[in-house]
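Worked problem 6 (solution included).
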Amino acid sequence: MLVFAKEKLVFLAMPKTGTTALESALASKADMVMRNPPILNHTPAYRYNRFLKPYLEKCGLEDMETVCVVRHPIGWLGSWYRYRARDEIVGTENSTRDITFDDFVVEYCKGQPASFANVGSQAKFLTLGDKSIGVNHLYKYEAMSKAIVFLKDRLKKDEIKLNRKNVSPPMALTISQDVEARLRDRRAFEFSVWDQGQD
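Solution. The predicted structure is:
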């Protein structure tokens, strides 16, 4: 998470949406950089609004706006699946090395998924208690160039160069029609929230 006081902007870092690269590119301009622990770096909108926004306001930072990136649910799950197939965690309960992507998605659709598919929810990250979007500026990962244009303009930067960071291992992924239909049915709100991003 990054806070830009003068520009009245807070960048909320959704996992697996290129946020590490964005944070690296923008950190030198930020007044506050929250990298660790990960729970602080990846502060969701509902937690920001409940805890951090009131604190910033007490510090004189009022009328702050938030910006975040959201990824297509299948692409987002694919990134998590590939990331959890990396060598460093093979043999742990989070590893997806010996699990198909279909099985990963089916498990994700359950109310209480196994550890390897327990990756959270973009919809929960972005919404408030009434299910409304809790950020002012929401951009689709698939249209990152639009987010870059917004950030360049808001932060008065001539250039924002993204270097790939925290990249999931390359891997061909396929999802069966039945499993995709199940995902769209069980996690329909994930798709609804992604649809609200700018593209």
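Discussion: The two ends are 22 Å apart (CA to CA).
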